[in-house]
Design brief:
Number of strands: 12
Shape: globular
Protein name: 12-oxophytodienoate reductase 11 isoform X1
Cofactor: FMN
Strand order of the largest sheet: 3-12-11-10-9-8-5-4
GO molecular function: 12-oxophytodienoate reductase activity; FMN binding
Organism: Cicer arietinum (Chickpea)
Keywords: Flavoprotein, FMN, NADP, Oxidoreductase
Helix content: 25-40%
Bound molecules: flavin mononucleotide
Length: about 375
């Protein structure tokens, strides 16, 4: 490294909150820049492929924190082509070299556990059954060519079975054969757990519907079961109370946010990972003044924010105490060496949206250039 560059790095470290170390529970992170979970649809037949080892290791730094792409917890969980699962022996074994590649470079790697709920269709379901949900109302996704059939609402006595699927998937994720460092439960973006949380979708009249407390019951049962199985210190939860992706909205998102933050705090989990309220759609920022500060204050563990962050905003939110860590999605996808680029304030590659949900093992995946 040239003297000039070295000087810039040292100066950067002194002034950049994003590049300061952080102790997240038992994990010593060397910086605050997290790889957000990003579905890559390149896990053929729902089995993670060896090319994912290169993808994740490209984005690994020593002491850096990575969250893996959403991984299905059971044979009813899938809703997209070529997304990985973590419920069969073959799927579990397939993750092993990928996790090893991240660990070899000193990264900390969590597996995101996912159930799509009604964001699925007959083709992904065993026996061509309807997908399961909190409701029988079909998802109406504007602008999408995919058609979503009316789901089948889970009966009250089926719910413990789905809780158990999350628990088993968590056990699979951290068992010695794979060794993820922990799991993130996907409670965001309009998928199954979010379908229970939000009253636009949850129209149940059993103990899992109606009141705020009831709507949060099933997601919290999942968190509790997973924490009991693998330890609360290895569990994070992702939430998007303010978003309405996949037509999943709540009439009082602030109350939902605070109740979940307090409940997760009581369960003593490692982190709470929240999508910024300004992300009304998955990829576009809008102007709204809703703040995550009340939610951050209601949660005692590590607080991670995501959604539309760039270098400056990331530094500001960490520097001002608004968050401990910042998860970067599209910028990290397009810039495998994002922490280095932030450190040097270097030029950033542009993300190629046309390759987001495509299945090539290289294009738009492992071919983004390093500095
Ligand atoms: C291609 C793509 C796939 C995504 N897959 C997931 C996913 O598997 N799980 C999840 O929670 N969020 C997923 N997201 C959302 C991102 O984690 C992140 O919240 C979003 O991109 C906004 O952050 P950004 O502005 O830094 O990109 C995905 C986003 C993109 C672009």
């Amino acid at each position: 490294m040239m003297e000039e560059e070295k000087k810039k790095v040292v100066e950067g470290r002194e002034t950049m909150p994003l590049l300061t170390p952080f102790k997240m529970g038992n994990f010593n992170l060397s910086h605050r820049i997290v790889l957000a979970p990003l579905t890559r649809t390149r896990s053929y037949n729902f089995v993670a492929q060896s090319h994912a080892a290169l993808y994740y290791s490209q984005r690994t730094t020593k002491g850096g924190f990575l969250i893996g792409e959403a991984s299905g917890v059971s044979d009813t969980a899938q809703g997209y082509p070529n997304t990985p699962g973590i419920w069969t022996r073959e799927q579990v074994e397939a993750w092993k070299p990928i996790v090893e590649a991240v660990h070899e470079k000193g990264g900390i790697f969590f597996c995101q556990l996912w159930h799509a709920g009604r964001v699925s269709n007959y083709d992904y379901q065993p026996g061509g059954q309807p997908p399961i949900s909190s409701t029988k109302k079909a998802l109406q996704k504007e602008g999408s060519s995919t058609k979503y059939p009316p789901p089948r609402p889970l009966t009250t006595d089926e719910i413990p079975n789905v809780v158990n699927h999350f628990k088993m998937a968590a056990k699979n994720a951290i068992e010695a054969v794979i060794g993820f460092d922990g799991v993130e439960i996907h409670g965001a973006n309009g998928y199954l757990l979010d379908q229970f949380l939000k009253n636009k979708v949850n129209d149940r009249d059993d103990e899992y519907g109606n009141s705020l407390e009831n709507r949060c019951r099933f997601p919290l049962e999942v968190v509790k079961a997973v924490a009991n199985e693998i330890g609360a210190d290895k569990v994070g939860v992702r939430l998007s109370p303010f978003a309405d992706y996949c037509d999943c909205r709540d009439s009082n998102p602030q109350a939902l946010a605070i109740y979940m933050a307090q409940s997760l705090s009581q369960l003593g989990i490692l982190y709470c990972h929240v999508i910024e309220p300004r992300m009304q759609t998955m990829f576009e920022k809008c102007d709204n003044n809703v703040s995550l500060i009340p939610m951050r204050k209601a949660f005692n563990g590590t607080f991670i924010v995501a959604g539309g962050y760039d270098r400056n905003e990331g530094n500001n939110v960490v520097g001002s105490g608004g968050a401990d860590l910042v998860a970067y999605g599209r910028l990290f996808l397009a810039n495998p060496d994002l922490p280095k680029r932030f450190e040097l304030d270097a030029h950033l590659n542009k993300v190629d949206k046309s390759t987001f949900y495509t299945s090539d093992p290289v294009v738009g995946y492992t071919d983004y250039p390093f500095l």
